[in-house]
Amino acid sequence: MTTSCLLAVGGLLLLAAAGAGLAQDPVKAASATHKVLLENERVRVLDIHVPAGGRALTHTHPTGYVAVAMTDCHMRFTYPGGKVSESTLHAGEVVWSDPVTHSAENLGPGECHVLNIEPKDAQAAKK
Q: What is the distance, to the nearest Å, from the Cα of residue 34 to the centroid of all Cα atoms in its chain?
Protein backbone atom coordinates (compact mmCIF):
# COMPACT_ATOMS: atom_id res chain seq x y z
CA MET A 1 0.00 0.00 0.00
CA THR A 2 1.39 3.42 -0.88
CA THR A 3 2.02 6.12 1.66
CA SER A 4 -0.79 8.28 0.25
CA CYS A 5 -3.26 5.35 0.53
CA LEU A 6 -2.22 4.75 4.13
CA LEU A 7 -2.66 8.43 4.94
CA ALA A 8 -6.10 8.47 3.30
CA VAL A 9 -7.24 5.36 5.21
CA GLY A 10 -5.84 6.78 8.46
CA GLY A 11 -7.67 10.07 7.86
CA LEU A 12 -10.95 8.25 7.25
CA LEU A 13 -10.51 6.25 10.44
CA LEU A 14 -9.86 9.43 12.41
CA LEU A 15 -12.99 11.05 10.95
CA ALA A 16 -15.08 8.00 11.82
CA ALA A 17 -13.72 7.96 15.38
CA ALA A 18 -14.39 11.68 15.79
CA GLY A 19 -17.95 11.29 14.52
CA ALA A 20 -18.60 8.38 16.86
CA GLY A 21 -17.28 10.45 19.77
CA LEU A 22 -19.86 13.19 19.18
CA ALA A 23 -22.75 10.88 19.99
CA GLN A 24 -21.93 9.31 23.28
CA ASP A 25 -23.73 7.51 26.04
CA PRO A 26 -26.38 9.75 27.66
CA VAL A 27 -25.02 9.09 31.15
CA LYS A 28 -21.58 10.35 30.07
CA ALA A 29 -22.75 13.19 27.82
CA ALA A 30 -25.51 14.42 30.14
CA SER A 31 -24.43 13.25 33.58
CA ALA A 32 -26.13 16.20 35.28
CA THR A 33 -29.54 15.05 34.03
CA HIS A 34 -29.25 11.29 33.32
CA LYS A 35 -28.66 8.70 36.07
CA VAL A 36 -28.75 4.90 35.88
CA LEU A 37 -31.42 3.34 38.13
CA LEU A 38 -30.97 -0.25 36.94
CA GLU A 39 -28.66 -2.01 34.54
CA ASN A 40 -28.24 -5.67 33.72
CA GLU A 41 -27.52 -7.79 30.63
CA ARG A 42 -30.99 -7.14 29.16
CA VAL A 43 -32.01 -3.57 30.01
CA ARG A 44 -30.88 -0.21 31.36
CA VAL A 45 -33.26 2.21 33.09
CA LEU A 46 -32.34 5.90 33.14
CA ASP A 47 -33.83 8.44 35.56
CA ILE A 48 -33.85 11.75 33.69
CA HIS A 49 -34.44 15.14 35.34
CA VAL A 50 -34.12 18.17 33.03
CA PRO A 51 -34.88 21.48 34.78
CA ALA A 52 -36.92 24.19 33.05
CA GLY A 53 -34.63 25.72 30.44
CA GLY A 54 -32.12 22.91 30.96
CA ARG A 55 -30.32 20.98 28.24
CA ALA A 56 -28.87 17.54 27.68
CA LEU A 57 -25.86 17.51 25.33
CA THR A 58 -25.79 15.36 22.20
CA HIS A 59 -26.02 11.67 23.01
CA THR A 60 -27.24 8.46 21.41
CA HIS A 61 -29.72 5.70 22.22
CA PRO A 62 -28.42 2.95 19.91
CA THR A 63 -31.18 0.41 20.60
CA GLY A 64 -34.11 2.80 21.06
CA TYR A 65 -36.01 3.26 24.30
CA VAL A 66 -39.36 3.36 26.04
CA ALA A 67 -39.99 6.75 27.71
CA VAL A 68 -42.32 6.97 30.71
CA ALA A 69 -43.20 10.58 31.56
CA MET A 70 -43.35 11.14 35.30
CA THR A 71 -44.24 14.83 34.84
CA ASP A 72 -45.61 16.90 31.97
CA CYS A 73 -42.76 17.66 29.55
CA HIS A 74 -42.33 19.96 26.57
CA MET A 75 -38.99 19.22 24.91
CA ARG A 76 -37.07 20.34 21.84
CA PHE A 77 -34.82 17.73 20.22
CA THR A 78 -32.03 18.60 17.81
CA TYR A 79 -30.65 15.89 15.53
CA PRO A 80 -27.42 15.57 13.54
CA GLY A 81 -27.70 17.70 10.43
CA GLY A 82 -29.72 20.37 12.24
CA LYS A 83 -33.25 18.90 12.10
CA VAL A 84 -35.32 20.05 15.10
CA SER A 85 -38.56 18.69 16.57
CA GLU A 86 -40.67 19.42 19.62
CA SER A 87 -42.52 16.88 21.71
CA THR A 88 -45.01 17.15 24.54
CA LEU A 89 -45.58 14.28 26.95
CA HIS A 90 -48.07 14.26 29.78
CA ALA A 91 -47.43 12.59 33.14
CA GLY A 92 -48.15 8.87 32.83
CA GLU A 93 -47.75 8.79 29.05
CA VAL A 94 -45.55 6.03 27.60
CA VAL A 95 -43.92 6.23 24.15
CA TRP A 96 -41.37 4.29 22.09
CA SER A 97 -38.42 5.89 20.30
CA ASP A 98 -36.41 4.13 17.61
CA PRO A 99 -32.61 4.37 17.87
CA VAL A 100 -31.69 8.04 17.83
CA THR A 101 -28.92 10.58 18.32
CA HIS A 102 -30.06 13.96 19.64
CA SER A 103 -29.63 16.78 22.11
CA ALA A 104 -32.58 17.94 24.22
CA GLU A 105 -33.85 21.17 25.73
CA ASN A 106 -36.69 21.54 28.23
CA LEU A 107 -39.05 24.24 26.93
CA GLY A 108 -41.62 23.72 29.68
CA PRO A 109 -42.21 25.79 32.81
CA GLY A 110 -41.13 23.02 35.20
CA GLU A 111 -38.77 20.08 35.48
CA CYS A 112 -39.17 17.29 32.94
CA HIS A 113 -38.87 13.93 34.72
CA VAL A 114 -38.79 10.85 32.49
CA LEU A 115 -37.74 7.24 32.90
CA ASN A 116 -36.08 5.80 29.79
CA ILE A 117 -35.98 2.02 29.48
CA GLU A 118 -33.30 0.99 26.99
CA PRO A 119 -33.21 -2.61 25.76
CA LYS A 120 -29.72 -4.05 25.42
CA ASP A 121 -28.53 -5.28 22.06
CA ALA A 122 -28.81 -9.09 22.03
CA GLN A 123 -25.24 -9.42 20.69
CA ALA A 124 -23.83 -7.07 23.35
CA ALA A 125 -25.59 -9.07 26.09
CA LYS A 126 -23.70 -12.23 25.01
CA LYS A 127 -20.27 -10.61 25.61
A: 10
State whether CATH 2.60.120.10 applies to domain 23-125: yes
CA distances from 102 to 23, 38, 90 (A): 8, 22, 21
CB 70 within 8 A of CB 117: no
User: What's the distance, CA 125 to chain centroid?
Assistant: 19
The pTM of this model reads: 0.78
Confidence of residue 31 (pLDDT cuts 50, 70, 90): very high
40 φ, ψ to 5°? -145, -165
Q: What is the 3-state secondary structure (H, E, C) of 26-41?
A: HHHHCCCCEEEEEECC
Where does the pLDDT of residue 23 fall: very low under 50, low under 70, confident under 90, or very high at 90 and above? low
Q: Give the model's confidence band at 121: pLDDT under 50 very low, under 70 low, under 90 confident, else very high.
A: confident
Contacts of 14 (CB under 8 A, 6+ apart): none
Residues in contact with 11: Cβ distance below 8 Å, sequence separation at least 6, in sequence order: none
